[in-house]
């Protein structure tokens, strides 16, 4: 795998939101980490992912499956009431399922996918359903107008507004301060 550092401004979100955050704005332009197989390798290295599911290498098929899944999660996040959005996410989920069984050593939970390329994308889609079931009101998109990042609001009060206080929060406060100062000037 490539040894380049992950260039994204926000890392460490739950897998489905981390996948959404492979799109970000830098220098006024939309960036896409999944644009290349090398970018997929960078993402796989930094994503919070159980090692047993981490693929040995990335390829064009995995890149395509991840992009399809990112689009499906994004569609549901933006338009949850639309049937077409749900259909796209359900199409990703149709590539796999979990098989539960009880063995002498306890409960076994096995992920079964129709093609290994769908393992990580399926886990991201499953993770999004888990977030929707547990904390739907905590899935947020940054409120800064020039930011497209998503995050899980884990603040105690549940009032987090920005992907990062250090990045978008400070930009917003600086803009408000400048607007306030402009309003203080005599006409």
From TrEMBL:
Classification via Pfam families: ABATE, zf-CGNR
Residue stretches in coiled coil: none
InterPro entries: ABATE (IPR010852), ABATE_dom_sf (IPR023286), Znf_CGNR (IPR021005)
Segments forming domain Zinc finger CGNR: 138-179
Domain of life: Bacteria
Record-given protein name: CGNR zinc finger domain-containing protein
Species of origin: Gordonia polyisoprenivorans
């Amino acid at each position: 795998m490539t040894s380049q550092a992950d260039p994204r401004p926000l890392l460490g979100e739950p897998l489905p939101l981390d996948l959404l955050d492979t799109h970000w704005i830098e220098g006024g332009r939309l960036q896409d980490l999944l644009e290349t197989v090398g970018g997929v390798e960078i993402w796989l290295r930094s994503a919070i992912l159980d090692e047993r599911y981490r693929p040995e290498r990335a390829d064009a098929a995995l890149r395509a499956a991840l992009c399809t899944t990112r689009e499906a999660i994004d569609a549901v996040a933006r338009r949850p009431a639309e049937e077409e959005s749900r259909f796209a996410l359900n199409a990703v989920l149709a590539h796999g399922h979990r098989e539960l069984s009880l063995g002498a050593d306890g409960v076994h939970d096995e992920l079964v996918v129709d093609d290994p390329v769908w393992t990580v994308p399926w886990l991201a889609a499953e993770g999004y359903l888990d977030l929707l079931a547990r904390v739907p009101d905590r899935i947020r998109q940054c409120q800064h107008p020039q930011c497209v990042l998503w995050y899980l609001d884990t603040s105690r009060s549940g009032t987090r507004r920005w992907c990062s206080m250090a990045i978008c929060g400070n930009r917003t406060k600086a803009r408000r301060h400048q607007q306030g100062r402009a309003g203080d000037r005599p006409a």
